[in-house]
Specification:
By secondary structure, this protein is of the alpha+beta class. It contains five helices and twelve strands. Bound molecules: zinc ion. Zinc ion binds next to helix 1.
Length: 276
């Protein structure tokens, strides 16, 4: 069976087949290097994450904004869109709508020279007039958004762990995140880490030669040895830092004191109560 590897999927425990290459970071964020070569994630889980999690996170959550600002095209060379339409209604128990959040806009890349400009389509006039009057757009991280960003980060973190420690990712300490990433939750939301970076990471910088480059994203995964061996995954995009604690759903909230980096960037927990 050329090109087919039979192993165990880190998300659903099925024995494959693994016939397609898994991108640890979505290709829609420009990733071509961080991959799993037909190993670790079965075809149906790959399909599931792409369709159910990444598509939402990269076009309807706050991360989608940066795809538009930086004009990161999809692998099929389609333009990104940040779709801030009003959610139709809350599906299931996890609220996807918040009355204080601004809705009714769609954002597209601006195809001109001005790198800090984007195009906006106004779907709801009334709401837009309020945004103009307030001179700001307020996006509330709804519970639904927190769940999906958490599952998105969890999936990336687990695949990175698999790449680093192999079958160690089947260890019991990661069981909860493996399930949460793949199957979600109907009541208990995994807290997210979030912070605003002092400097955005996407500024153009000289490469050394005549060329310039900029970062779309960067990440780190590490163990806090002095703090219950918590395994932390941090993901930066634009001027924001997102993260998740991989091996404990509800750690001591004060762990954030240990997560101030050398540049003084801080994170805090976005923590929702349980839904019943
Ligand atoms: Zn699977």
């Amino acid at each position: 069976m050329g090109g087919v590897i039979v192993g165990k999927c880190i998300f659903c425990n099925s024995e494959g087949p693994f016939t397609t290459i898994e991108h640890i970071i979505p290709e829609s964020l420009g990733n071509t290097d961080d991959i799993l070569e037909r190993d670790g994630v079965c075809d149906s889980c790959q399909k599931y994450f792409g369709k159910e999690i990444e598509q939402y996170v990269l076009s309807k959550s706050c991360l989608g904004f940066y795809r538009v600002l930086l004009n990161i095209k999809t692998k099929k060379n389609r333009e990104p869109i940040f779709d801030l339409s009003r959610p139709e209604k809350n599906s299931g128990k996890i609220p996807s709508y918040h009355p204080r959040s601004d809705y009714g806009l769609k954002f597209f890349p601006y195809n001109g020279d001005d790198a800090n400009r984007i195009e906006v389509e106004i779907v709801e006039d009334e709401r837009f007039n309020k945004m103009l009057a307030d001179n700001k757009i307020e996006i509330v991280m709804t519970p639904y958004m927190v769940v999906n960003i958490g599952r998105f980060l969890g999936k990336i973190a687990l695949e990175l762990l698999f790449k680093g420690i192999g079958d160690g990712v089947f260890d019991e300490q990661y069981e909860a995140l493996r399930r949460y990433s793949r199957y979600g939750t109907s009541n208990e939301i995994w807290p997210l880490l979030h912070g605003v970076l002092k400097d955005p990471i996407h500024n153009w910088e000289a490469d050394g030669g005549d060329t310039e480059s900029r970062l779309i994203y960067r990440y780190s995964i590490f163990e806090l040895k002095r703090y219950q061996n918590l395994v932390i995954f941090l993901f930066d995009i634009g001027s924001e830092r997102y993260g998740i604690v991989c091996n404990q759903k509800f750690p001591n909230p004060r762990v954030v004191d240990q997560l101030i980096d050398v540049d003084g960037n801080k994170v805090q927990f976005i923590w929702y109560p349980n839904f019943r």
